[in-house]
Amino acid sequence: MTTAESHEQSSGRTDGSETNAEKRPRFWPVILLLAAFWTLYHGLYWLDLSMGNRFLYRMANYAALLLLFLVWWLTNRRISRRDRWFAFGIVVAGAAVAGLLVDKTVGVFGLVLSGMPYVITVWTLWWIVAQKLSVRTRRAGLAIAIALAWGFFTLRRFDGLNGAQESISNWRWEPTAEQIFLAEKPRPEQPDSAAGSLQLLPGDWPEFRGPARNGQVAGVRIATDWSADPPKLLWQHRVGPGWSSMTIVDGRLFTQEQRGEQEAVVCYDAESGKDVWAHEDLARFYDNLSGPGPRGTPTFADGRLYSLGGTGRLNCLDAASGKADWSRDIVADSGATLPQWGFSNSPLVVGDLVVVFAGGPADKGLLAYRTGDGEPAWSVATGKDSYSSPQLATIAGHAQVLMLTGRSLAAVDAQHGGLVWEHEMGGGMFLPIDQPQAVGDGQFLIQAGAGLALVEVTAKVTAQATRDDNPSSTSQLWASIALRPSLNDYVVAQQSIFGFDDGVFCCVDLRSGKRRWKQGRYGHGQVLLLPDQPLLVVLSETGEAVLVAANPEKHEELARFQAIHGKTWNHPVLAHGRLYVRNGEEMACYDLKLLERR
Question: Looking at domain 175-200+249-387, which of 2.40.128.630, 2.170.150.40, 2.50.20.10, 2.60.40.290 is its CATH number?
Fold first, then answer.
């Protein structure tokens, strides 16, 4: 020990007046601060909050901890000035070194956000237990403790967030699910140019969320006693990452997935799960929260398959062979910027047009291309922000394409592209994800803000009508936050809405928007409706398949089993009595034992 250190420890001076023996640091304020932080940190996942509010509370919790702790530490006259600045410097230096070594999926921001609460906790605990140690030992121990705390985060890989915004991480040397998939996956087969044309059969699932894009499986009844007669696993295998759902047509399954630097539209045999063909484009979308891969679901129409990739490539493929008929870059066509979470909408085919949302400036919001050659047909200004998909609706016999954006619910003439009517959403930040649903003659249920709203078209709509003809053509019947769907679509049955309210399943009255019940923690999953039973097939965020009665009076869970593993946001499909499920890691098919078909 040096003479200066010996003098500092023996005299115990903090700022030249009092001794440590007389005035030791009071740790109770920071202990209370840490207790409050960690309580709120874990409690936020159980509080009844919207996804946006939970994020804001998390950020405020982090900011409060960092600010209040630094104020307490740097102004604490019961700790020597040298100790205060030594510890501060060690923490900053450790963060700088760790920032150079941390995995790229974590990054400097993620390192500070994730690591600082743990560093502060270690920092505090060490200083409490080291009060009676020598100055040199206390400082050396602090340096080691801080180095270990920061060092831990250099060993981790960030694999995104779940729906409750909890971090998912693994050791950085462990292979990712995508790396394992690529190592095991055989080379894609060459498309068979001589393959015959595929036909849409009764009971097929030709597009996102089914033929009407409402998540309903009409005319079907399945066995519900899964204890006595459990669903039979027909096949299961790894799949490339992506949040695409599946399309089932004529014994084929179509989906999108990432295969390294190639974005792939893939055809599997629906009976066996084996590869049939894969169309690959050099493209890769990645965001740090939800990971890599395409988001949209392929659409089948008249022997062709239409797909929109995460970076904006629109493909028209022969569904039987995978041969490309034409391709468009909707970013180049519209001048749009790549959305934060990628292009996520599924193409809508209406007659001889395929419609996609680009979110470009001016009139380049919603784009229509001719199915025959991919040439542009029309474009309409519908707002710039949306992760929802175009939706076909018929009002007074007039076919319209609905598009829900942060600006409005817009109705566009399906053939000519004129804006027929528009329901403005009002101010505030709003990024719709879910599909608008027709629930009556001219009535539409839509995601609005954090919750839902029921909108009614009040003006007479004709083929010649425009928004200018009917400036006040809609009215809002109700708005409610009784169900906050975020990234989870909902279904409608028996004058009730069934869906996920911040990860908890609930039922809301369609006529009033009031909640009937809320029960069943399935995370941020997805749901299908079998209206003939009536029955709900829920796919939880952790990959469990759950049967729930579509009962407006109470939550009634009938059965469940673990279908796949991993974070599951992809929409399930039920076709011909078989349940198809996938996520960013694996895909599986189960026979649910079809009882009858009407």
Answer: 2.40.128.630
